Amino acid sequence: MCNRYYAPGEKEIEDYWHIGNRNPPRWWEDAAREIFPRAQGPFIRRALDDSGYSLEAAVGQWALIPPWAKAANLPYSTNNARSEELADKAAFKGAWARGQRCIIPAMSFDEPNWETGKNEWWRFRRADGEPWGLAGLWSQWVNQQTGEVHESYTMLTINADAHPLMRRMHRPDPKLPADQQDKRSVIPIEMGDVGLWLAGTVEEASKLLQLAPVERFDAGPVD
Questions:
Q1: Are 74 and 150 in contact (CB under 8 A)?
Q2: N or C: which end of the chain has fewer CB within 10 A?
Q3: Could you tell me which residues are beta bridge partners of residue 124?
Q4: In this structure, are strands 80-82 and 120-126 parallel, antiparallel, or unpaired?
Q5: Which domains does the chain have, with CATH numbers?
Q6: In which element (H, E) is residue 156 found?
Q7: Which tens digits make up the pLDDT trace of 178-220?
Q8: How confident is the model at residue 1 (pLDDT cuts 50, 70, 90)?
Q9: How far apart are the C-alpha atoms of 157 and 149, rounded to whole Å?
Q10: What span, in angstroms and rounded, lies between the C-alpha atoms of 105 and 70?
Q11: The pTM is what?
């Protein structure tokens, strides 16, 4: 599970993902750089007003609100979604089936390490210095009383029990063996796969739900 990450700046996002001409003026104004669950953050998706293929940036709540929700403030957490359960979980299966996939830009993300017996935060950057493009789903929820549209998104995760680095994160369950802890990791989408992730079929997108190799990480304790 990821509960804190750091977004790039507006210009960095527009330049890196080549989306500057698709965005409304001052699209960044409601987003922060250090992002926590239920805060406003940026995400990238296929442009909604383009029948072809182009990208746009949006800002929404980091905690997906499904269209059928009765209120925007859900009583449960939806900022992370287990990729293995996307087709079955009520909160996420509609967005997954409709191809509402997005890229979540992040300069780094933080995870807790408990190897010393207490929580020590680690920060994860890319070894090449580029921003992460993390796999996500987006949704729109409409307030039936006011007509206001709420944008939101969730960050996908995958089991990391066998990953040399990510299996070291999060508090272990002493009742479970090491290979059944269900340690989780975010899922990076490489630049060459962005088009397939955003515009491919469900089957094609499913093949991109993979852990990043350990050499792609620059990770260590937060100062």
A1: no
A2: C
A3: 109, 219
A4: unpaired
A5: 5-221 (3.90.1680.10)
A6: strand 149-159
A7: 888 899 999 999 999 999 999 999 999 999 999 999 999 999 9
A8: confident
A9: 26
A10: 29
A11: 0.95
